[in-house]
Amino acid sequence: YQRRVHGESEMSSPPFPLSPSLPPRQSTIRGSPSRRNAYKAPAFMTENMENTFITIDNALEYVGDNSRYQKRVIYVLATQWVLYSFFIMGMPFLFKTPSFKCIVDENTAYECDETEACKLGKFVVDRARSQNSVTLEFGLYCDQKYLVSVASSIYFGGCFFAGFIFPQLSDRKGRRLSLLLSIALSGGAVLLAGIANSINMFLAMMGLAGVGMNGLETLSYVYVTEVSAQRFRNFSSVTLTTVWAVAQIVLSPLVYFVPDWRSLCVVVIGIPFLISLLFSCRALHETPRYLASKNKFLEAKVNLNQIATYNRRPPFMYRLQGEMKVFNEEYYKYMPAQLSDRGPRETEPEKNDKAIAGKVNYSYLDLFRLHSLRGKTLSMTYLWIFRYIVYYGLALSLESLGKEIHLNLLFLALAETIACLMSG
After folding, report:
1. Are 300 and 292 in contact (CB under 8 A)?
2. Radius of gyration of the chain from Cα atoms?
3. Which residue of 112, 298, 394, 407 sits 20 to 30 Å from the alpha carbon of 378, by its own alpha carbon?
4. pLDDT-derived band of residue 335, with 50, 70 and 90 as boundaries?
């Protein structure tokens, strides 16, 4: 752990406070009074913590890397990923094709598929054998069939725009606010889609749902990596993807009991999404890593103490590595005049970082402009495009794989669940 200041391995305490005053730690441990002040052993301990500088990864290890707070975060996000999976993988049921009867004459009719019915031109929809879907209610068959593909395209178009909106928003306003906004947008859009009285309103809500849910997916990964060190990050990523797959297994029998598309959007997905927003507001704090990156060290240490409290760890009293520059400036104020005139000496990496921060503003174009990133960016872009086409093309075409789409979804979900568990 870094304790050196300009090559000096030992420091005497200067006459100014090194650590800002933090609120006293309030124990949340239930039980007998003798246990209320008991702490779990942290990952490490050093003497003179107030004068010791550590990295943000070390700080997260100290307050508990894979403990109660991180698991609470996973529980909250996993609930939203279940609903997220319900909506995406439930699209084949939302747009399920109704049953048709082709009319030969006034007294003769027979069951036929959509292609034959539309070609013949004389048909009726057998509502008794059809699931109440968006396709049935808004008449998205025959010459209106293209609107089913338009709805999916609008959703993924919203996902495309979310890739530009939420990264910038999270860098400026914080991870927590951006994540809560994505949850609210997802739940509100699905809820409004469920009560839409026209196909145009439904399509508009599909686009907003795409923006919100893609933001939820991206920011969930960012959030769980910034509230923990390396050990918990792998576990959290595998957990979220596994929850996504297991939710599909649950969805397959669920749609048997909730065949109405409005009930699926409003009762099963929309309202629970908004309820989970209330729990998220209470359970999720701003990430210490983000606050430290914005030089908000006092707020970062307050949040680290909140995590330590929930994880039953001793109070966090260390100083973060980013505070070294501020510490050096304060240190030289109390040095003798002949040394103070020199000022704090900048290392070569610090000079380079300062020059870069002052002159360079990176953008998406730099992923293609820089030779070291161009090849990796193009490769990853190709792989993700291929992944989206294959995965969602297969998942959204369950009717083409066989007549029983419930079993088709179940088999795909089981295969994905096994793959997720093997990747962990």
Report:
1. yes
2. 28
3. 394
4. low
17: region left, alpha or beta (phi > 0 left; psi from -120 to 50 alpha): beta
Strand pairing report for 100-105 and 123-125: antiparallel
Q: How far apart are CA 301 and CA 320, in angstroms?
A: 8
Q: How many residues does the chain have?
A: 424
What pTM was estimated for this model as a whole?
0.81
Residues 6+ apart with CB under 8 A from 93: 131, 133, 255, 259, 261, 264, 405
And the tokens for 230?
């390396």
Element (H, E) at 53: strand 53-54
Residue that has been written with the tokens 């929930």 in this structure: 310
Contact 280, 183 (CB under 8 A): yes
Residue 270 burial (C-beta neighbours within 10 Å; 0-12, 13-18, 19+): buried
Across all residues in the chain, what is the average pLDDT?
Answer: 82
Residue 215 · residue 165 · CB < 8 Å: yes
356 vs 284, higher pLDDT? 284
In the predicted model, is pLDDT for residue 21 greater than 70? no
- Strands 108-112 and 319-320 turn out to be unpaired
CB atoms under 10 Å from CB of 184, counted, come to: 16
Burial of 377 per CB tally in 10 Å (0-12, 13-18, 19+):
middle
Report pLDDT for 174.
92
Report whether 186 contacts 84 (CB < 8 A). Answer: yes
- Looking only at the bridges linking them, the beta strands covering 108-112 and 53-54 are unpaired
